[in-house]
Design a protein that fits this description.
Distance between the termini: 52 Å
Number of helices: 12
Mean pLDDT: 83
Radius of gyration: 22 Å
Order of helices and strands: HHHHHHEEHHHHHH
Helix content: over 70%
Strand order of the largest sheet: 1-2
Strand content: under 5%
Largest sheet: 2 strands, antiparallel
Shape: flat
Structural class: mainly alpha
Oligomer: single chain
Length: 264
């Protein structure tokens, strides 16, 4: 299985997870969207040196993944590409911020390394929260929740069609890659002089398929309005939102680890 096929499989896995009939999947999508947004904003509000506070916020996604029966290791695995980008951005702090901030076992740790680690943790917790939202809700239900927040219909429709168009783009790319490999079995990758032609063909073929998909949606009555696909658990959604807000407030305003350390 090549890279494109793995990407397609990962998207289909997310759709299958969102279609499960679990307790978390039954929660109203607006409740999950609001809780995840609140958590992400709380995580991002920490100072770049607030290492203990950001570490403590990791309790929330771990609890969510256990509640939703999702693989935490799989979520962390999907974070690899984002982690590479964050490390590339945060390495500059290591060279410019050289003041010693911590001393762990006789090893001096500068503020640059602390800020880099905090940046990685912020990215990881935010990514895990978004992955949880998509894996337990689905893109259609997320768009439904966005419309309840009075997001313009055209923006929610564009978001959904972009998500669907991405799958078509990957599928066409996989077909073209397989066709090229059959015609040039001894070639290592795609030759540079064929890139322009293949990219143009990929764009045209994926646009044609996307147009066909949209026409099929229109024939089935799609007019840009999203509807709740399953009965939502209202009481459970309220409890989920209240618990999420309480966690964010407590762990943002209080040094929980320091308090527990003083008590023990």
């Amino acid at each position: 299985m090549n890279r494109l096929e793995r990407a397609i499989s990962a998207i289909h896995v997310l759709d299958e997870l969102a279609g499960r009939n679990t307790l978390v999947n039954k929660l109203h999508p607006l409740a999950k969207l609001g809780a995840v947004l609140c958590f992400i904003l709380t995580v991002l509000s920490f100072d770049k040196y607030a290492l203990s506070g950001v570490v403590a916020m990791g309790i929330y996604p771990v609890f969510l993944y256990q509640l939703a029966d999702l693989s935490l290791c799989e979520g962390i695995k999907r974070f690899r590409t984002v982690a590479f980008l964050l490390i590339s951005l945060g390495l500059a702090n290591v060279y410019f911020d050289t003041a010693v901030l911590l001393n762990i076992g006789g090893i001096a740790v500068s503020g640059g390394w602390v800020s880099l680690f905090v940046l990685l943790l912020k990215g990881l917790w935010s990514f895990l929260a978004v992955y949880f939202l998509i894996a337990t809700t689905g893109m259609e239900q997320i768009c439904y929740a966005l419309q309840l927040l009075h997001l313009p219909k055209v923006m929610s429709v564009v978001l959904l069609l972009t998500y669907r168009y991405l799958i078509l783009l990957l599928q066409e790319g996989s077909r073209m890659s397989a066709a090229y490999a059959l015609r040039a079995p001894h070639s290592k990758g795609i030759a540079f002089n064929a890139w322009g032609t293949l990219v143009g063909q990929l764009l045209l073929r994926s646009i044609d398929r996307a147009q066909t998909v949209y026409e099929s949606m229109a024939l089935r009555g799609f007019d840009g309005t999203f509807y709740l696909q399953r009965a939502a658990d209202g009481k459970g959604a309220l409890a989920f939102v209240l618990l999420s807000l309480s966690f964010c407030l407590v762990f943002r305003l209080l040094p929980v680890f320091a308090i527990l350390g003083s008590l023990l």
